[in-house]
Amino acid sequence: MRSPQSHIAPEIPPYRSTLEVLRMPVQAKLAAAWTSFMFLYIYTDYFHLYQPGAIDQIRGGDIFVFDISPTFLTVGLASVAIPALMVMLSTTLPARVNRATNLVVASLYIPYSMVNAAGASWDWASFYGLSIGLEVLLLAFILRSAWTWPRRTASPATLAASVDSEPLRTPQQA
């Protein structure tokens, strides 16, 4: 049964009204940022191969000033594996450990990402500036998200913490 007012003013269907804004868990934000970082990190290395002489240098057994060796490839694999693991760790670690891990790893990756510009000519400044700039922005987002991780305050009704969560602390204890 329709109300008399519906004949005068059409009703706005719920799906066309204001979008609902849900609070995204910090863990999901961190995992998404690490995923974005990982893709950008890998594609920067991939697109580097298009630079003139890059493949010839690799065929010659060198990358930048480093000899291609099992040790070099192991370090290279670890540098890509860490962001990949951070995607999973950001969703599974307990909050306190998660926060600390993200702060430490993101802080270490900022200078590590900047090293990609070492030895690059000014002709490639836009490529490295954009790739490193985006990587650093993602890492800054990770640092900010981990640093500003919301804290719960203890109330008499919620003092009993579950087995899977950390104990509740008042803002003075945190």
Write the layout of secondary structure elements.
Elements: H1 26-48, H2 54-59, E1 62-63, E2 66-67, H3 70-92, H4 95-114, H5 125-147
Antiparallel strand pairs: 1-2
Helix pairs in contact: 1-3, 1-5, 3-4, 4-5
Describe what you observe in this structure.
It is built from five helices and two strands. The protein has 174 residues and is mainly α. Strand 1 (62-63) and strand 2 form a beta hairpin. The chain is extended. The mean pLDDT is 84.
Low-confidence stretches: none
Total beta strands: 2
Distance between the termini: 56 Å
Shape: extended
Mean pLDDT across every amino acid position: 84
Main β sheet profile: 2 strands, antiparallel
Structural class: mainly alpha
- Report the radius of gyration as a whole number of Å: 24 Å
- Report the helical percentage: 40-55%
Q: Name the strands of the widest sheet in spatial order.
A: 1-2
Continuous helix count? 5
Order of helices and strands: HHEEHHH
Estimated share of beta-strand residues: under 5%
Observed structural traits:
single chain, 174 residues, mainly alpha, two-stranded antiparallel ribbon, 2 strands, 55% helix, 2% strand, extended
Q: What's this, in brief?
A:
With 174 residues, the protein is mainly alpha-helical. The chain has 5 helices and 2 strands; from the N terminus they run ααββααα.
